[in-house]
Write a structure and sequence with these properties.
The complex is a heterodimer. By secondary structure, chain A is mainly α. Chain A is built from 30 helices and eight strands. Chain A has a four-stranded parallel β-sheet, with helices on both faces. Chain A has a four-stranded parallel β-sheet with strand order 6-5-7-8, sandwiched between helices. Chain B is an alpha/beta fold. Classes of the chains: A mainly alpha, B alpha/beta. The structure holds iron/sulfur cluster (SF4) (2 copies).
């Protein structure tokens, strides 16, 4: 073994030791988090890893920067093979894949290494240009580590240059394959071959050593950089629940009987280790914040900041919490707090010192951030855990939501309407309640869960009646709960009041089970999501169908007879509800209902639509809070919808309906907002009974 | 400082009441109950005084059947120290009977301040507080919208039509609380859990024979439907004519 090989071996072992040291430290920090089970549903996790992770599907949602980044990522994966060869050859000079692989495979390897290194170099250069000259808005703010990004990009560029130079120089002395499999190295070799031999061998030595050392420097810099995501993002995607497994968008289950005084999270140690891992995985790309309706309209909330703050707070407090367990504390150069006598870090916490109440209450729970995140971070779960702490542990919240809590408790609805008025909309419509059917010994095929908006809100009642008319027309045997229906507590849950939520949800489950309800239809996406996706956490299992899907099915089955279409061309813009769209992937059913019921309809889409749809501003309990800071989200959204030039705006959610109708008053716009059920009900051929397709 | 707050469990007011068959009270089916609004303010004001002092005790007292324990627990979950239920089957309408039972409990202990809501939201008599003061021989200030206690002496603000009055008094005393003094806090789950472990004593209520009872209860007559005379300025002459001739509210 030549002395240079021995030196390299020592460097390699040292680098590996330091890296494992850093890695163990990060793992210790993660262990400060609460437990969460993330190894269930392996097939789903593997699919996520392959698509979102290796397939870079989320990254590619931004076509330009996404493609460049995907190139760098795939390049990295491909170049790992080459890096291993280089590192081994540093110790055992004779080592080469050429001796291990059949010739065609080896040539393929060389080709990939050659082409990839140049492609990565080009992509990294464009990314650097973007950071230094273009400076996109999404990469600013939230104290992101801009310098760090430039350092890392330059490091990668240097890695590629040294790699190309090494291969080029190698080709001059001993080409291992025809030029065609190493086109760029071969081109370089032509230039380099003009050099005197001594200079060439010096150049080869310098570029080889720089490349090998840069790999090790890069590896050891990562744990202390936001580029930790290079290592963590794939495991994070695998361990994440944001794209399944289980039901997407359900809030974390909570055991209220646990012997604890801490409900929800006020500091990092109350969060799960996965929330903490999210902090390590964040690339600070700002895709989440760019899609956040609260941030867009000038609220202090930035989902990226929530994640960055989680990481910052963890690095602040973790060393003092792991104490002597922190391998860093054994190091002479360690200057951080050594043990739990450090009170500075201990006196601060994640809530208040990093994340303020105003940020937390600005969230509409629209899930845009979660949906956009390329590394499957769950920003919303951190927000929700902090909200839970505010309400359950500290009783701190905007004062206007207290009446909503109290009303849910007393009246079974967040608004101050008497429970006895719940079924008033149904008076004279001859709609039976389940209690009445039971008395007559009859059965209903479906239960119509009307929801609080649909029951009490004057505007939403029109949708309620429209949907009831459609079902009657189609001969659906349905019933309502009438006065036995009460709020399922979803608004309370979203606002952090898990205690009130569980009381109400359990009561609702008790009522539904008493009537042995199996199938439920509802016109409210929040009821739809809550009963269908979150009740199972408390033992309530029902098939819940949203009215857009249900009406689409009735239309498809030919169970609805429509009056002759008016030959007037109508342009409609459909607004996606977050809880239908991003939470439940229902995008087509409401559009299909519009198409089928209005033969001359022209559907137009605002630029932000479907899974990119902008929230109306009502979710996450925002409906019950004042919007004191910044622009109004509903006005922003309405402007986008009006810009399509539509004659009417269609919605499939009573909350969206209110928000968009209210925005109309501010924008002085007379464009009507209609629920998809109302559109269909307007065109029912009264008196005609449709002949179901399977019969005709 | 030891403070007693007397609270009452009343039906939620956001419902449409029906008269019960015996016509001497409301039909209780489907009613939801909670602490009377003004009593909530009183509890909050007491808690704030205790917190400000950093010491002391807030004891909540309620008269009634076991259902009042729920209301007492709510006050405990807000932060009260302990609770006393004066047990009886039914809360009498006669304020004097209630006051006598309360006074016999409160007189035995040494409280610096005995607090009430200005009146209960169901019966709205507003007499129990002053009667307890009378029975115990204490000074009473009613409908306080601000309250301050410094070194055994209290100052209270009372809202008057178009003005305010500031009353000074010595402790011990009885005060009844108006709204606006402090918004009652929403109990945290932490508070609710803690309340389960706080002491709640149940004693028989020492009730005298009531001297008055409800003879009959009526709902207000249904309002007659309004009439739309027309729209805009054109409708004014007809409106004036109707107001003069039919409603006879204009001369
Ligand atoms: S859920 Fe929506 S409102 Fe809340 S932080 Fe994410 S993007 Fe912003
Ligand atoms: S949380 Fe995700 S989307 Fe947001 S900045 Fe971090 S990596 Fe980007």
């Amino acid at each position: 073994m030549a002395s240079s090989n021995a030196v390299f071996l020592i460097i390699l072992v040292l680098a590996a030791a330091v890296f494992s040291f850093s890695a163990q430290r990060l793992v210790r920090f993660l262990r400060l988090g609460q437990g969460t089970h993330r190894f269930d549903a392996l097939p789903r996790r593997i699919v996520n890893l392959l698509t979102i992770g290796f397939g870079q599907t989320k990254i590619l949602r931004d076509p330009v920067a996404g493609t460049l980044h995907a190139l760098v990522f795939w390049g990295f994966v491909v170049l790992q093979l080459g890096a291993i060869e280089i590192l081994v050859a540093g110790v055992v000079p004779a080592f080469s894949y050429a001796d291990l692989l059949p010739v065609p495979v080896y040539r393929l390897f060389l080709l990939t290494q050659d082409v990839t290194s140049l492609a990565v170099l080009v992509a990294v250069s464009v990314l650097l240009y973007r950071r230094l000259v273009v400076k996109p808005r999404r990469l600013q703010g939230d104290q992101v580590h801009g310098g760090d990004a430039i350092l890392i990009l330059s490091l990668i560029a240097a890695l590629m240059v040294t790699l190309l130079l090494t291969s080029g120089a190698e080709r001059v002395t001993a080409a291992r394959a025809p030029a065609i499999v190493q086109p760029f190295a071969a081109a370089l070799a032509i230039v380099l071959s003009r050099m005197p031999d001594s200079l060439l061998s010096a150049l080869h030595g310098v570029s080889w050593w720089s490349h090998a050392l840069l790999i090790l420097v890069f590896l050891n810099y990562l744990p202390y950089s936001k580029h930790l995501h290079v290592i963590v993002s794939l495991p994070n995607t695998f361990l994440s629940n944001t794209s399944g497994p289980g039901t997407i968008g359900t809030m974390k289950a909570m055991d209220l009987d646990a012997e604890t005084e801490q409900f929800g999270a006020s500091d990092v140690t109350h969060l799960s280790w996965k929330n903490l891992l999210d902090g390590y995985a964040c690339t600070e790309c700002g895709r989440c914040t760019a899609a956040c309706p609260a941030n867009m309209t000038g609220k202090p909330l930035s989902p990226r900041k929530i994640v960055i703050n989680t990481r910052q707070r963890l690095s602040e407090v973790a060393p003092s919490l792991v104490g002597a367990d922190d391998p860093m504390s054994a190091l002479p150069m360690h200057t951080g707090p050594r043990d739990d006598t450090d009170s500075g870090a201990r006196d601060r916490r994640l809530l208040d010192h990093y994340i303020t109440e105003d940020e937390l209450w600005a969230c509409t729970s629209c899930r845009a951030c979660v949906y956009e995140c390329p590394v499957s971070i769950d920003q919303l779960e951190i927000i929700n855990e902090l909200r839970r702490n505010l309400v359950l542990t500290e009783s701190r919240f905007p004062e206007e939501i207290q009446p909503a809590f109290e009303s849910m408790e007393r009246n079974g609805t967040p608004w101050a309407f008497p429970a006895s008025d719940r079924a008033k909309w149904a008076e004279g419509l001859d709609i039976p309640t389940l209690a009445e059917l039971l008395e007559r010994n009859e059965r209903a095929d479906v239960l119509y869960w009307v929801g609080c908006m649909g029951s009490f809100d004057e505007r939403a009642q029109k949708t309620t009646v429209a949907f009831a008319r459609i079902m009657k027309h189609a001969g659906v045997r349905f019933a309502i709960l009438g006065q036995e229906e009460a709020c399922h507590g979803d608004p309370a849950r979203r606002m952090g009041n898990e205690y009130l939520y569980q009381i109400l949800a359990k009561q609702a489950i008790e009522t539904l089970d008493r009537y042995r309800v199996t199938t439920i239809v509802t016109a409210c996406p929040h009821c739809f999501h809550q009963i269908g996706n979150e009740f199972p956490q408390l033992g309530g299992h029902y098939e819940v169908i949203h009215h857009s899907t249900y009406i689409e099915q009735l239309l498809a089955d030919g169970r609805i007879a429509l009056a002759d279409p008016v030959a007037q061309r109508l342009t409609v813009a459909y607004h996606d509800s977050c809880y239908l769209g991003r939470y439940n992937a229902i995008y087509d059913a409401p559009r299909e209902v519009l198409r089928r019921s209005l033969p001359v309809v022209a559907l137009v889409e605002p630029p932000r639509t479907r899974d990119r749809g902008l929230c109306c501003g009502a979710g996450g309990g925002r409906m019950f809070m004042e919007e004191r800071i910044g622009e109004r989200i509903n006005v922003e959204r309405k402007k986008e919808l009006l810009a399509t030039g539509a004659d009417a705006i269609a919605v499939a959610c009573p909350f969206c309906m209110t928000m968009l109708a209210d925005a109309g008053k501010k924008l002085d716009s007379s464009v009507t907002v209609l629920d998809v059920a109302e559109v269909v009900a307007q065109h029912l051929a009264e008196g005609v009974t449709a002949v179901p397709r399977d019969v005709a | 400082m030891r403070i007693a707050v007397c609270i009452k469990r009343v039906p939620d007011m956001d419902v449409k009441f029906r008269i019960a068959g015996h016509a001497k009270g409301v039909d209780e089916t489907g009613l939801k109950y909670d602490m009377a609004d003004f009593d909530g303010y009183a509890v909050e004001a007491a808690l704030q005084m205790m917190e400000k002092e950093g010491a002391g005790e807030v004891v909540v007292v309620s008269l009634g059947p076991d259902a009042v324990q729920e209301t007492l627990r709510k006050a405990l979950s807000m932060g009260a120290t302990s609770a006393i239920q004066l047990k009886c089957d039914e809360v009498p309408f006669d304020g004097f009977a209630v006051a006598s039972a309360l006074a016999s409990e409160l007189g035995g202990a040494t409280y610096d301040l005995i607090m009430f809501g200005r009146m209960s939201t169901d019966n709205a008599n507003g007499v129990v507080g002053p009667m307890v003061a009378e029975l115990l021989g204490l000074p009473v200030v009613t409908a306080c919208s601000k309250l301050e206690i410094v070194a055994g002496r209290g100052t209270a603000r009372r809202e008057l039509e178009g003005g305010a009055e500031f009353v000074a008094f010595d402790l011990p005393a009885v005060v009844t609380i108006d709204e606006g003094i402090a918004r009652p806090r929403y109990p945290s789950l932490k508070g609710i859990m803690a309340a389960k472990k706080k002491p709640l004593a149940t004693k028989p209520a020492n009730l005298p024979e009531p001297r008055l009872v409800i003879a009959r209860m009526d709902l207000p007559p249904e309002r007659k439907a309004g009439r739309i005379v027309g729209e805009g300025a054109a409708a004014v002459p007809e409106l004036v004519r109707l107001l003069q001739q039919e409603a006879k509210v204009l001369a």
